[in-house]
Amino acid sequence: MKRVVIIGGGIAGLATAYSLREHSDAPFEIRLIERKDRLGGNIRTERASGFLIEGGPDCFLSEKPWAMELCKRVGLGDELLPTNEHNRKTFVLSRGKLHVLPEGVILMVPTKILPLATSSLISVPGKIRMAMELFVPKRKGPRDESLGDFVRRRLGAEALEKIAEPLVAGVHAGDPETMSVRASFPKFVQLEEDYGSLIKGMLKKLELLKKTHKPAAGTPNKRVTMFMTLKNGLGSLIDTLQEKVSSSKDTVVATGVNVSGVERKADAYEITIEGGEKIAADAVVIAAPAYAAASLVRFDKELPAKLLTIPYVSTATVSIAFRKKDIKHPLNGFGFVVPKVEKRKIMAATWTSVKFSLRAPDDSVLIRCFVGGSKDTSLLGASDEEMVRTVRQELKDIMGIDAEPVLSRVFRWMNSMPQYTIGHEERIDWIDERVAGYPGFYLVGSAYHGIGISDSVRYAEIVAKKVLHHIKASKPQ
Ligand SMILES: Cc1cc2nc3c(=O)[nH]c(=O)nc-3n(C[C@H](O)[C@H](O)[C@H](O)COP(=O)(O)OP(=O)(O)OC[C@H]3O[C@@H](n4cnc5c(N)ncnc54)[C@H](O)[C@@H]3O)c2cc1C
Question: Integer distance in angstroms from the first to the last C-alpha of the chain?
Answer without folding.
Answer: 9
